[in-house]
Design a protein that fits this description.
54% of the residues lie in helices and 0% in strands. The protein is mostly helical.
Length: 140
């Protein structure tokens, strides 16, 4: 059986590296600009996060079919628990935990690995969306 914790750590490490690269690409010449431009870099990073969360919303309500079990407002159903703020059954509610659940599924439940056949990019997007909603940072 594969070591998913190592995969998660590796994936998160790549995510951080990619985020840093994206920040550099999205804010060209930032290093050569005056310190006041850090506000623009921050706004750019917020915009990137919002786009990631919005993409995750589309996966949740679309190809990932997550809404079918968790409800259109992530309120939970008889099939699956709420994904809003709550005491998580299978972990601490961290981004890494949510990613692990979406990647590996939950044995003996309706939660399968990569629901709807989503790919790794979509997995990251839906993870960001669920995490943001569960923290009250984004609306369902």
């Amino acid at each position: 059986m594969a070591d998913h914790s190592a995969l998660s750590f590796s994936f998160l490490r790549r995510l951080v590296a990619t985020s840093l690269l994206a920040a550099v690409v999205l804010a060209p010449g930032l290093a050569a600009q005056q310190p006041a431009d850090t506000n623009k870099a921050f706004r750019d990073s917020v915009a990137v996060r919002l786009k990631l969360i919005e993409a995750g919303r589309h996966v949740f309500h679309g190809e990932g079919t997550c809404f079918a079990c968790h409800g259109p407002n992530l309120e939970g159903t008889a099939i699956a628990p709420t994904l809003r703020a709550h005491k998580w059954r299978n972990g601490d509610g961290s981004l890494a935990m949510i990613m692990r659940i979406v990647r590996t599924g939950v044995p003996n439940t309706a939660m399968i690995s990569h629901p709807g056949g989503i790919n790794e990019d979509e997995l990251l997007q839906v993870t960001a969306y669920v995490w943001a909603v569960s923290r009250g940072v984004a609306k369902p």
